[in-house]
Amino acid sequence: MEANAVALRTCQPSLVPGLLQTEEYARAVLTGQGIHTPAEVGQLVAGRMARQELIDGPAPRRFTAVVDEAALRRVVGGPDVQRAQLERLVEWSALPHVRLYVVPAGAGAHPGLAGGFVLATLPDGDEVAYVDGVFGQVMDRPGAIDTLRSMWDTLLGEALSEGASLELIGKLVSEL
Q: In the prediction, which pLDDT does 126 show?
């Protein structure tokens, strides 16, 4: 799905999106799941890092992420790992094809709390989705895509502007 997409939109309520994770953050997340051997974690981290070519490779995709503030405040892997992760988000956001928005804690309940998802726009304009969970699921049913698109629109309405989002991330870096 990602490899064929021309644009990716992701909502993540509890973690930094996988395509934006540093190696150390990804390792901490995957280890923390408690279901992978060290060798499997290594393979999964390598795969996640390779997928970042979708954003910083020769043919980058438009990438927009909406992340809940709680995900940015959750210290994953310790303060140094979290600080490096937040600083990396600021770096990613400087790319012209990357947009990052934060839904502030003060927004209260919002559609993203139902779980993370990715909407991928294919070259022909069709959309497919990946819905996070223990057993993540790819779907292309029009009704499901419409629901996720509606959730996305609501999330963008709840999120801070790009500038305010980056300002908040900068504040979180200084708190670590």
A: 93
CA distances from 37 to 10, 22, 25, 43 (A): 28, 20, 17, 10
CB 144 within 8 A of CB 129: yes
For residue 11, give both structure tokens: 């909502």
Residue pLDDT, tens place only, 7-60 = 999 999 999 999 999 999 999 999 998 889 999 999 999 999 999 999 999 999
Dist CA 7 CA 24 (whole Å): 26
pLDDT score of 137? 87
**Nearest to 131, CA basis, from 143, 144, 150, 122:** 144
Q: Report all structural domains of the chain as residue ranges with CATH numbers, in order of start.
A: 7-175 (3.30.870)
Backbone φ and ψ for 65, nearest 5 degrees, come out as -125, 140
Q: What is the pTM of this model?
A: 0.91
Partnered with residue 117 across adjacent β-strands are 11, 131
Query: What Cα–Cα distance (Å) separates residue 69 from each residue in 26, 35, 66?
Result: 18, 26, 10
Residues 7, 61: contact at Cβ < 8 Å?
yes
pLDDT at 115: 87
The β-bridge relationship of strands 7-12 and 127-131 is unpaired
